[in-house]
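User: Quick sanity check before I run a bigger batch. Here is a single chain. Can you write out its predicted 3D structure?
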Amino acid sequence: MQKNPDTRSVKSQFLIYLLLIPVALIVFLDEWIKSRALQVFPEDFTLVSPKLFDFAVHKNYGLVFDIPFRLEFVVITSIIIGFLLLQIVCRNFLKRPKITFPVLLILIGAFGNFYDRLAYGFTVDYIIVLGRSAINFSDMIIVLGVLSLLLFTQKNEKPITC
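Assistant: Done. Predicted structure follows.
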Protein backbone atom coordinates (compact mmCIF):
# COMPACT_ATOMS: atom_id res chain seq x y z
CA MET A 1 0.00 0.00 0.00
CA GLN A 2 1.35 3.39 -0.98
CA LYS A 3 1.53 6.02 1.75
CA ASN A 4 0.84 9.67 1.18
CA PRO A 5 4.13 11.51 1.79
CA ASP A 6 2.37 14.79 2.54
CA THR A 7 -0.22 14.25 5.26
CA ARG A 8 -0.81 18.01 5.52
CA SER A 9 -2.63 17.96 2.18
CA VAL A 10 -5.11 15.35 3.42
CA LYS A 11 -5.69 17.31 6.64
CA SER A 12 -6.06 20.61 4.79
CA GLN A 13 -8.57 19.03 2.38
CA PHE A 14 -10.53 17.68 5.32
CA LEU A 15 -10.50 21.09 7.03
CA ILE A 16 -11.59 22.84 3.84
CA TYR A 17 -14.58 20.52 3.50
CA LEU A 18 -15.31 20.79 7.22
CA LEU A 19 -16.05 24.47 6.60
CA LEU A 20 -19.08 23.39 4.58
CA ILE A 21 -20.93 22.47 7.78
CA PRO A 22 -21.34 26.07 9.00
CA VAL A 23 -22.22 27.12 5.45
CA ALA A 24 -25.00 24.52 5.32
CA LEU A 25 -26.20 25.69 8.74
CA ILE A 26 -26.34 29.27 7.41
CA VAL A 27 -28.56 28.08 4.55
CA PHE A 28 -30.84 26.28 7.03
CA LEU A 29 -30.96 29.50 9.07
CA ASP A 30 -31.74 31.35 5.85
CA GLU A 31 -34.68 29.03 5.18
CA TRP A 32 -36.00 29.59 8.70
CA ILE A 33 -35.67 33.37 8.30
CA LYS A 34 -37.47 33.16 4.95
CA SER A 35 -40.42 31.30 6.45
CA ARG A 36 -40.62 33.81 9.33
CA ALA A 37 -40.17 36.75 6.94
CA LEU A 38 -43.20 35.66 4.93
CA GLN A 39 -45.24 35.76 8.15
CA VAL A 40 -43.80 38.87 9.83
CA PHE A 41 -41.94 41.22 7.46
CA PRO A 42 -43.80 43.80 5.37
CA GLU A 43 -43.75 43.64 1.57
CA ASP A 44 -40.86 45.57 0.03
CA PHE A 45 -43.12 47.93 -1.90
CA THR A 46 -44.48 49.29 1.41
CA LEU A 47 -41.11 50.82 2.38
CA VAL A 48 -41.55 54.58 2.38
CA SER A 49 -38.08 55.94 3.09
CA PRO A 50 -35.58 53.14 2.49
CA LYS A 51 -32.43 53.00 4.59
CA LEU A 52 -29.08 51.41 3.83
CA PHE A 53 -30.52 48.03 4.92
CA ASP A 54 -34.18 47.19 5.45
CA PHE A 55 -35.93 43.93 6.18
CA ALA A 56 -38.94 43.27 4.00
CA VAL A 57 -40.21 40.46 1.79
CA HIS A 58 -39.38 40.61 -1.88
CA LYS A 59 -40.77 37.78 -3.98
CA ASN A 60 -38.27 37.06 -6.73
CA TYR A 61 -39.99 35.16 -9.54
CA GLY A 62 -37.01 35.43 -11.86
CA LEU A 63 -33.53 34.10 -12.07
CA VAL A 64 -30.73 36.62 -11.85
CA PHE A 65 -31.47 40.30 -11.19
CA ASP A 66 -35.19 39.59 -10.90
CA ILE A 67 -35.53 38.93 -14.64
CA PRO A 68 -38.93 37.21 -14.86
CA PHE A 69 -39.12 33.71 -16.28
CA ARG A 70 -41.73 31.00 -16.05
CA LEU A 71 -41.27 28.78 -13.00
CA GLU A 72 -40.88 25.67 -15.17
CA PHE A 73 -37.99 27.26 -17.07
CA VAL A 74 -36.30 28.37 -13.84
CA VAL A 75 -36.61 24.90 -12.28
CA ILE A 76 -35.32 23.07 -15.37
CA THR A 77 -32.44 25.53 -15.80
CA SER A 78 -31.55 25.19 -12.10
CA ILE A 79 -31.51 21.40 -12.35
CA ILE A 80 -29.24 21.46 -15.42
CA ILE A 81 -26.81 23.96 -13.85
CA GLY A 82 -26.86 22.00 -10.58
CA PHE A 83 -26.06 18.78 -12.44
CA LEU A 84 -23.12 20.43 -14.23
CA LEU A 85 -21.80 21.81 -10.93
CA LEU A 86 -22.10 18.37 -9.35
CA GLN A 87 -20.03 16.94 -12.20
CA ILE A 88 -17.31 19.53 -11.49
CA VAL A 89 -17.38 18.54 -7.81
CA CYS A 90 -17.13 14.81 -8.58
CA ARG A 91 -14.22 15.23 -10.97
CA ASN A 92 -12.23 17.59 -8.75
CA PHE A 93 -13.13 16.50 -5.20
CA LEU A 94 -9.90 14.80 -4.17
CA LYS A 95 -7.38 16.46 -6.46
CA ARG A 96 -8.44 20.09 -6.37
CA PRO A 97 -10.23 21.15 -3.18
CA LYS A 98 -9.56 24.82 -3.94
CA ILE A 99 -11.85 24.43 -6.95
CA THR A 100 -14.32 22.03 -5.38
CA PHE A 101 -14.99 24.08 -2.24
CA PRO A 102 -16.24 27.22 -4.07
CA VAL A 103 -18.39 25.08 -6.37
CA LEU A 104 -19.91 23.41 -3.31
CA LEU A 105 -20.59 26.86 -1.84
CA ILE A 106 -22.46 27.78 -5.01
CA LEU A 107 -24.42 24.51 -4.89
CA ILE A 108 -25.38 24.92 -1.21
CA GLY A 109 -26.55 28.50 -1.72
CA ALA A 110 -28.38 27.57 -4.91
CA PHE A 111 -30.11 24.72 -3.11
CA GLY A 112 -31.57 27.21 -0.62
CA ASN A 113 -33.05 29.30 -3.41
CA PHE A 114 -34.14 26.20 -5.37
CA TYR A 115 -36.06 24.97 -2.33
CA ASP A 116 -37.88 28.31 -2.20
CA ARG A 117 -38.94 28.00 -5.82
CA LEU A 118 -40.37 24.54 -5.18
CA ALA A 119 -42.00 25.45 -1.85
CA TYR A 120 -43.30 28.95 -2.64
CA GLY A 121 -43.03 29.41 -6.42
CA PHE A 122 -40.49 32.22 -5.96
CA THR A 123 -37.30 32.98 -4.07
CA VAL A 124 -37.80 34.86 -0.82
CA ASP A 125 -35.42 37.80 -0.52
CA TYR A 126 -35.63 39.69 2.75
CA ILE A 127 -32.64 42.03 2.97
CA ILE A 128 -33.33 45.18 1.00
CA VAL A 129 -30.15 47.13 0.20
CA LEU A 130 -30.48 50.85 -0.53
CA GLY A 131 -34.17 50.37 -1.24
CA ARG A 132 -33.34 48.68 -4.54
CA SER A 133 -31.60 45.32 -4.34
CA ALA A 134 -33.17 42.39 -2.52
CA ILE A 135 -31.01 39.51 -1.31
CA ASN A 136 -30.90 36.66 1.20
CA PHE A 137 -28.16 34.61 2.87
CA SER A 138 -28.27 31.97 0.13
CA ASP A 139 -27.50 34.69 -2.43
CA MET A 140 -24.54 35.80 -0.33
CA ILE A 141 -23.20 32.23 -0.19
CA ILE A 142 -23.50 31.92 -3.98
CA VAL A 143 -21.62 35.20 -4.50
CA LEU A 144 -18.96 34.10 -2.02
CA GLY A 145 -18.57 30.85 -3.97
CA VAL A 146 -18.29 32.64 -7.31
CA LEU A 147 -15.73 35.13 -5.96
CA SER A 148 -13.73 32.30 -4.36
CA LEU A 149 -13.80 30.35 -7.60
CA LEU A 150 -12.53 33.36 -9.53
CA LEU A 151 -9.81 33.97 -6.97
CA PHE A 152 -8.63 30.36 -6.81
CA THR A 153 -8.64 29.82 -10.58
CA GLN A 154 -6.39 32.85 -11.09
CA LYS A 155 -3.49 31.11 -9.35
CA ASN A 156 -2.13 28.79 -12.05
CA GLU A 157 -4.90 26.25 -11.73
CA LYS A 158 -5.84 24.01 -14.61
CA PRO A 159 -9.16 24.91 -16.24
CA ILE A 160 -12.29 23.48 -14.64
CA THR A 161 -13.82 20.61 -16.57
CA CYS A 162 -17.34 19.23 -16.42
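The chain has a mean pLDDT of 83.

User: Great, the batch can go ahead then.
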